[in-house]
User: What shape does this take?
Amino acid sequence: MDNAATTALSGEVLNAMMPVMTECFGNASSIHAYGREAAAYVEKARAQVAAAIGAAPSEIVFTGSGTEADNLAIHGYALRNKKRGNHIITTTVEHHAVLHTCEALEKQGYEVTYLPVDEYGLVTKEQVEAAIKENTILVSIMFANNEVGSIMPIEEIGKLCRERKIAFHTDAVQAVCHVPIDVNAMNIDMLSISAHKIHGPKGVGALYVRKGILIEPLIVGGAQEKRKRAGTENVAGIVGLGAAIEIGVREMPNAMAKVKALRDRLIDGILSAIPEVKLNGHRENRLPGNVNVSIRYIEGEAILLMLDINGIAASSGSACTSGSLDPSHVLLSMGIPHEIAHGSLRLSLSDYNTDEDVDYVLSKLPEVVAKLRKMSPLYNG
Amino acid sequence: MYTEKVMDHFSNPRNMGELDDANGVGMVGNAKCGDIMKIFLKVSDDGIIEDISFKTFGCGAAVATSSMATELIKGKHIEEALKLSNAAVVEALEGLPPAKLHCSVLAEEAVHAAIKDYYERMGMHEKAEEIAENEHFEEHEAPREH
Ligand SMILES: Cc1ncc(COP(=O)(O)O)c(C=O)c1O
Ligand code: FES
Assistant: This one.
């Protein structure tokens, strides 16, 4: 129930990776047969990733994570295009991989506009349009939010950016294999992908960079990845990403219809079984597997611990779980008060979840909530 | 991340609930993360904590420290209970992650607030003042450098 954090490796993906981890140990940069074999694996994966989003293989750069893809897109583009301007537009609800990159750029003299979101965690094309200035070079807006699952109007924003000749990056880490993506139809110039969110291995990602979009490498050294990202390729990881995304996109129509049905049953079940619970995010316009609710009078970390005792893995935007002792920046940006964000619970489903899983959560969660509310000095039930 | 002791007190909290016949009640909030802890005391005429209970809105560490704190001072004299430090509670729980140490301070403060309330109800305002002053002192200890 915590598939937005990471997913199980698919057996089919593991099978694809096995030969690379055993027999084929070549360095993809080597001239000899071993090297050529490794290079062929990498190129096959590149074609798989490209096909999944409607791109050309030459437009895919493999990275060490989704985080690195975000860094490379924003930092790399900003550095390379400084002469054209120094203003970047993003949102307050991005993943920290984007937010902290933007903050780092601000320290280097760039100017960043963080667009606020509405109660569902969404920005509009009009907001982006109003924020565009003469010196705007880049817009970076996530495809779908990792906490509340809200899906941004990417196609509209892409069209706007194209008209205004501004580069458009989207962090699609949560969206890939969950919603259809076409970088050309949506006018996306750069797009971040992470393998471990789609039943692939951890520690590998990719950045789509449209032909003609120039970026500065952040990791320099050898000539790998067309000089956009140095370092000997993680061939097994890359093969895993290629297989995972190909399978994920192939299975998407069936898998996501199933996940959506589970999600809706879970949402309806929670809202009807537990009083004073509110759904965070949009009822329809959300990722097929995302459920995020705020449960009044109780605290998120306590909910997670109690669910964990019952064998249910989940996540929360509570201050007590954050390490920084601030509640989720996403929930606060949506105007959710501190004490309500405190009782937030995210359950994220994948196609590996079953009806029984949903039934189990619906049988346990009301008990857990009742137990914690009984402990709460705020609850008079 | 939590010790077995913490998990035990979290899942089977001791002395959880409200006391209808309490004669000292203290509620404190954690400015850091927004959690709230409430302690109920039933103090006998000779100053012994005959019964104690708590209610907590907070993380696992907050619940466990409340539970442990009530257990440590139940049956003790209030003067002795006042000496209960958050460090002692943490030690009894066999440790807390560094990020969670502030939660244990909440338990100490809640106990102090409840005893202060008891003194006030008994008309022992000087004693109550003393607690308030001590809290005050602690609060201002850190900025002493300048
Ligand atoms: C929206 C979003 N962007 C980026 C990332 C980071 O990806 P990775 O874990 O591969 O660095 C995540 C994962 O937590 C995410 O949800
Ligand atoms: S009470 Fe919030 S972190 Fe412990």
Summary: Chain B has one domain: 4-133. Residues A 319-320; B 30, 33, 35, 58-59, 61-62, 100, 103 surround FE2/S2 (inorganic) cluster (ligand 2) (CB under 6 Å). Confidence is low (pLDDT under 50) at residues 137-146 of chain B.
